[in-house]
Amino acid sequence: MKITTEYRHGRLTVWLNGELDHHVAKDIIETVCREIDQCLPLSCFIDMKGVGFMDSSGIAVILKIYKRMKELGGTVIIRNLGKHARKVLDISGINRLVNMEEVKA
Known about the structure:
The protein is an alpha/beta fold.
């Protein structure tokens, strides 16, 4: 899993590329939460265009990021979900906590 981050104008954007499973979930959580703690963003966008596979560990990743952002009074937006990742997240009902959107390039 490759994780790329960028902080600009109060927004932390996180791009995930690869498979999101239990082998990488802890590293993603640690990396993104460290960036959140350093930048103190108002919003965190998680771009999942590059995620080809995701299991329930992806739900845990998003929930941990959501919890940290909520503690700071910020929001989380999930972008560019692939078909498989969207199915996992739709089943979880996580859309009641975080916004999900598609971005046209």
